Amino acid sequence: MTRQGLALRAPAIGFRGASALDESPEDARRTRFAVARAKEGDRQALCFLYTTYAHNVYGYVRSIVRDAHEAEDVTQHVFAKLLTVIGKYDDRGVPFSAWLMRLARNLAIDHLRANRATPMETVIDPRRSVTVDFDRSEAVRVALATLPDEQRRVVVLRHLVGLSPGEIANQMGRTESSVHSLHHRGRRALKRELERLGSTPCTRPTRQLAAA
Known about the structure:
The protein has helices at residues 25-39, 43-65, 68-85, 96-116, 132-145, 149-161, 165-172, 176-197, 204-210. By secondary structure, the protein is mostly helical.
């Protein structure tokens, strides 16, 4: 299969709940190819995985957090974290979809625990902060959560999904200049928050994926 085989429609901004994950052998083959390419930083492959599984992830997460808005946030965090952890996926009889849903479940539960914690309690579980990957992905998750909704969506769609400003404008029903403005403000706010968290190196993989 070639990279052209991963050609996609631009994903919609809004999520719809989906539970069916019946994959044909051809679907499974395309996913395996996309995962292999995504491990190498292929932006189009990441876009394919996002478009293929975002609605399923959202539907599953919503069944856990019981709130549509929070489920959207967690779904975006799942695919942001995927940037740093996809290299850990090893196809040993476990479908990628099952591995991704396990990741979504863990983040959804983390989200519930964090929101139920008292203000004096620590949000990050220290037992899980021992690895660099977790620290970096958690910093990105926390920093993204501080952005206004539209800024966060533009940043995610630009740097994670790899859409162009024009494609994002079409999806959001905005002008391209307004998308550029949201992107500029979002990146600046994200950088500032990551600096505050002392985690600016974690933005490097994102910039590499977004390089056009």
